Structures
1.
Amino acid sequence: MQITLIGTGLMGKPMAERLLGSGHDVVVYNRTPEKAKPLEALGATIAPTATHAIQASPLTIFMVTDAAAIRDIVFPPRGKPNLQGRTILQMGTIAPGESVALAQEVRVGIGDYLEAPVLGSIAEVRAGQLIVMVGGSAPQWDRWVDLLKCFGPEPLLVGPVGHAAGLKLALNQLIASHIAAFSLSLSLIQRLGVDVEVFLKVLRPSPLAAPMFEKKLPRLLDRNYAQPNFPTAHLLKDVNLFLHAAEAANLETSALKGIRSLLEKTLEKGLGEMDYSSLFETVNPRNS
Ligand SMILES: NC(=O)c1ccc[n+]([C@@H]2O[C@H](COP(=O)([O-])OP(=O)(O)OC[C@H]3O[C@@H](n4cnc5c(N)ncnc54)[C@H](OP(=O)(O)O)[C@@H]3O)[C@@H](O)[C@H]2O)c1
């Protein structure tokens, strides 16, 4: 099947590689062309514009930063793509309301739209082990589920458009809360001079342990945030999306606002493109 993928960033590039590896004909487009170029050698066709890319295939996967980027591409002021007979598959992390609005706009253009945000990062893309959460109708699910298995073995139909987007934000709120909580506890342990191994010996078998603590521990101990899978700036984006959705649902969000402030301070330190565990630098600044 011919498939278009727009956005060959940290996630989109390995996703295009998986599509190619599964035998699909793949057309790619990226705003910064150099990031798409290496895919040509693997057999992808590079589209000259996003409009050409969308016209090229019945399905276009979007793996771009946010809803504003999708809108810029799908509804540019000039040279709008003809969406008739085209399906837009949104796989980045955007808000439920944004996804519902995009679906309506695409349908006005006589196109089709569904969402399939993912949990997991670059390693999981490469291994085909993403958790793929689908927001769409039963007929859309039937049409696209086999393709989605290229990214994860067991895609899950969550509900209509917006539901998978909401589930993804709920999970990313946990990423932010977990890293903030673990950074603070580890920092106090270090400052008090308690042996970190003793802390872990108590924590590991307890109900308080989360696998992501172990995963991020080496980065925190080494203060090494290079070669990010998921950058701090994207986590801040998702926390803001969650806050917006949670406030609209009349939830008390002051705890998460504190974490947002930590992430904002981390960006002010110039760590926006680093791994999100760089929030540790704000919780536990060097030389203080
Ligand atoms: N990284 C992860 O672990 C992970 C996991 C799950 C979900 N996600 C989500 O997946 C999405 C992509 O993440 P990523 O990590 O791959 O991000 P990334 O490396 O920053 O890539 C972002 C992509 O969006 C494109 N883009 C941004 N603004 C644009 C605009 N106005 N017009 C056209 N293209 C635009 C970028 O193009 P340029 O190259 O030209 O800048 C790039 O291709 C995000 O929503 C993220 O939250 C990420």
2.
Amino acid sequence: MRVLITGGFGFIGITLAKVLVELDYEVTLLDSLTVQVHGEIPAFEAPAGVKCVRMDVRELADRPEVLEGMDVVYHLAAETGTAQSMYRVVHYVDVNEVGTAALIEGIGKCVRRPKHVVLASSRSVYGEGAYVHESSPGILVVPQSRTKEQLVAGEWEPVDGQGRVLTCVPTPENLGFFPGSIYAASKAAQELLLQAASTALGFRLSIFRFQNVYGEGQSLQNPYTGIISIFFNRAAQGIEIPIYEDGRESRDFVHVSDIVWGLVNVVKADLPSATVMNLGAGQPTSVLSLVDDLLAATGCNVPVRVTGQFRLGDIRHCYADTTRAKTLLGYSPQVSLREGLRRFAAWASSQPRHDDKLEKATEELRKKGLAV
Ligand SMILES: NC(=O)c1ccc[n+]([C@@H]2O[C@H](COP(=O)([O-])OP(=O)(O)OC[C@H]3O[C@@H](n4cnc5c(N)ncnc54)[C@H](O)[C@@H]3O)[C@@H](O)[C@H]2O)c1
């Protein structure tokens, strides 16, 4: 099996590559090694036996030879900061959408075209995700993104059109697209572009929508995404951890090894093209509870402050309905949050320290009116 991973030096890509090499796959990593993720002088270790191509995914239309004869292309290269996407709009659309378009054009120019493309999409395409009202528990509703006025008033929980508070339930794949950020819209666009091309160009397409992935290898330098890395960095340097809203907002945190299990096994499964599957732990964890568990895993003791501040475009809750991946792939996440945080903290503690850039990133958002 010949496999190309775009964004292969990201932490999901590297973890995937290590597993594929063990399975005797011939692996090529394509990555531009962006400064935001890797720093000015990228310090990385390519797994033994992989081939590395340093290039921008947007060049693939002009360099189709990189794609020639691949059995599988995992398309992971992307800009990934939700809040940052709200002001670097052209850049996010360019990397995520034009990058995907370049991949498709490159595939079209190959003599031996890749047979299977696996896209790393995101739960963000669902916006606030699935909720119900107690009067009609069988009917899923997707609340509108919360407005600035609601957030300023501390009305954190999403409400329906009549102002009634709703209850968050697991989000299934058929909910539809309700992107609440440019990042989310660009991930939805990646899905649509690949769906539009797969039949005509003759490749099978598999789409995963990941929840919040964390784990060993996650950038400790990127202040725009990766809440666990950001909080770890502060805790390790004895800096207070600020928590947005009231701290009861929640996410579905899934360890990278469970994501990689899905990525590896979808290639072996005989599924129809354009199958979309959620991958997550399938349960919500509040940010306050996450910080408790993270501090316990690191052994650090720093103040934790619930700030009541917020970012526009952030969702309140959302967790995955993983029934489809369970049924079609036998997916069953193996790493509990506590165990995953223990593994992450052990790895992160051995890494060089990086200056904390969270406040600078937040200040940037404040100036643009995107954080209050
Ligand atoms: N981590 C998560 O919680 C999460 C959740 C949902 C979806 N995803 C998706 O998973 C994929 C991988 O994310 P990750 O968490 O490993 O992120 P990451 O930032 O660790 O990795 C992304 C990699 O892409 C590379 N890259 C960025 N722009 C590029 C370009 N123009 N050309 C080539 N390479 C480029 C970066 O250098 C980086 O190595 C992304 O598509 C992301 O949208 C991640």
3.
Amino acid sequence: MSDTILKISNVSKSFGGVKVLENVTFEVEKGNRHALIGPNGAGKTTLFNVISGIHEPDEGRVFFEENDLTQFPSRKRIEKGLSRSFQNIRLMPHLSVLENVMLGQYSRFGIADLLKPLNFSIESTGKIEATETLKRFRIDLYEGRTVSSLPYGVRKKIEVVRALMAKPRLLMLDEPAAGLNTEETDELRKFLNEVSDSGITLLLVDHDMPFVNSLCQQVSVMNFGQLIYNGNVPGLRKDKKVLDAYLGSDD
Ligand SMILES: Nc1ncnc2c1ncn2[C@@H]1O[C@H](COP(=O)(O)OP(=O)(O)OP(=O)(O)O)[C@@H](O)[C@H]1O
Ligand SMILES: [Mg+2]
């Protein structure tokens, strides 16, 4: 599996007797921008939670590079190179942008070390690196601002930068374009293309089809906990199951 970075194998998960994931199997190719789409409640976030170690699957396995991660705690998966953002923004609203971004380094530097007031104030390796990353993605303008004072679009971008601070090889994003206007979505697409060009594989969930179509090469579609399509973007519109379940015939 040299070209495969992530392999989801026969994953099933139930909550209180309700099957939310049913035998889900697919692979993400190294270097790809891969989308996971489907109607509300299809199980996309639950699958992200299984991949990132928040939920243990009832059955099935998750392989990342050469490792079987199924039993690994979340922190260990981040250390191994798998990082994510959440559907609802999870930044610390009263900390600055720089401090929030530096918190994304905890898997590498340790939380105790990072939270030393000195490390937020002096030019530590982590701080220099965080500043450089903010600059690279053109959000250094906001570096010292409190997160709660910033527009939603900027906060979404900061969340992605924070996830990048763990130096992942696979970055998972749960609805990064949700709530963004057209201009912010265009900016996010450009930004994620740059992330992808730097060699990081992307797996993202989103409902914004123009965004998915213009960014991703590969798509997996879920419906009622089952995978109903796995293939390229153009093929989506020719697939009857996908049209019936999600896109609609005139979408
Ligand atoms: N911790 C939980 N306990 C019980 N049920 C849950 C839990 N997490 C998710 N579910 C249920 O699992 C189903 C799938 O939810 P999930 O959040 O994975 O969907 P989704 O595809 O991400 O939807 P959306 O597009 O709305 O974000 C839903 O019916 C949801 O209510
Ligand atoms: Mg979701």
4.
Amino acid sequence: MTTAGRRRFVLLDRDGTINVERDHLTDPDRIELIDGAAEALRDLAARGFGLVVVTNQSPIGRGMMDRARLAEIHERLTRELAARGARLDGIYFCPHHPDAGCACRKPATGMAEQASAEHGFELSECFVVGDSEGDIGLARALGATGILVRTGRGAETERAAAVHWDHVVDDLPAATQLIERLSPVLLA
Ligand SMILES: [Mg+2]
Ligand SMILES: [Zn+2]
């Protein structure tokens, strides 16, 4: 059982999980929510889950956009979610090039650790939802429950991945239903 009064958190990938995958999204106008994603997040929050996005944003490290542009993208994403009643507790990003060897690019745990320190949740009790091997790698590194969604690159990941997923579902709404089934203690 979770510690009384401590919220469980869902660590969410962004591209291909919440919004439609674009190869290196650098334009706020190209943000498009995946069907049902906002409603799924709204439902999770209503069940008491904390919601944090952890996203690799190598376009910054690649010189394709700056942090101000990424902030615009996240402002747009936040607004589109809010219009459908969903609110995130935080957005954490890794701005580094994949070759930088940083401690935050998924599957490394830096973003999750920062979120845990700021919001006070237990990493091993988290659910990690994403469409890429980096997401499941993160789940495994945290001892958390990993859920692969088939949106974005997920179907491709499901076919190719050598690593083991705890669960594979069609999309974020299905992941939400699964999380709610796996967490009956929160319904009491
Ligand atoms: Mg993704
Ligand atoms: Zn990084």
